[in-house]
Amino acid sequence: MISMEGGRTPEILDYRNENGHxxxxxxxxxxxxxxxxxxxxxxxxxxxxxxxxxxxxxxLIAAYPKCGTHWLWEIVTMLRAxxxxxxxxxxxxxxxxxxxxxxxxxxxSPRVLNTHLYFRHLPENLVEKxxxxxLILRNPKDVSVSFFNHLNGVKLSHGFxxxxxxxxxxxxxxxxSNGHYFEYAKDWxxxxxxxxxxxxxxxxxxxxxxxxxxxxxxxxDFIGVSVSDELCERIAEACIIDKMRxxxxxxxxxxxxxxxxxxxxxxxxxxGEVGDWKNWITVAQNEQFDDVIERRLEGxxxxxxxx
Length: 307
Hints:
The chain is of the alpha/beta class. It has a single domain, classed as P-loop containing nucleotide triphosphate hydrolases (Rossmann fold). The protein has eleven helices and seven strands. Strands 5-4-6-7 form a four-stranded parallel β-sheet, sandwiched between helices. Strands 1-2-3 form a three-stranded antiparallel β-sheet, with helices on one face. A hairpin with a 2-residue loop joins β2 (about 25-30) and β3. α4 (about 140-155) crosses α5 (about 165-170). The N and C termini lie far apart (about 40 Å). The model is unreliable at about 1-5 (pLDDT under 50).
């Protein structure tokens, strides 16, 4: 990367396809970054994120976009509160990512923070303070479909007006903000190896979907809160997608406003199902996807559930 300290502007990488669909990025420490204003501003904000002072009782959720961040954040927030009431604040206010990271810094303790950032872009005292960190992974085929529908539905400048087939080409090549999903997953798994003193829990979206009570209790044990079976059941019921969609309508955050989304789009929450990719991916695309998964995840031990 060309650093801002070197006095030079980073190279802009134009990854739009022949139809003009896609994005332009710059590269920061090997990671493709979409920029709302300029690369220089984005790099400045990332350095400010790295300098944030985490608190001993923080819990951090790390996830690539569309892997269940909202779902898990609401669950953890309820567990820490000891009830199944929805947070009055939206998840976006607790996000460490630019440009709204300062809102998270101003939240009162105890905080449930969340991020799509790579470890190297997060606060430098994350390991020192032994912040309890939960990584949630989701099968990449459903991630691609969910991410496409999100970006295809949003009116913001980083939206996507092309077809799913066009989007999938970009997704499999890692020409996305935050780069390749597989690199993101591998990077966080490497963090666990490099920093054994950092308390980390890895969850899979599909397991949480299949057995929410068991996984909610696993999360509760990890963050150190005592819960009853009844509370776990209430939280699981409160955090089904239709109820979260309704609950979030009254929250103050730009991504919950209907005017941010194209007409007819459901907003942040779509189906939340496992296996919906079968309605989108052709046989040929699936073979291509499987090839990329096999190559990219070789030796990681990651096994995804696809239905």
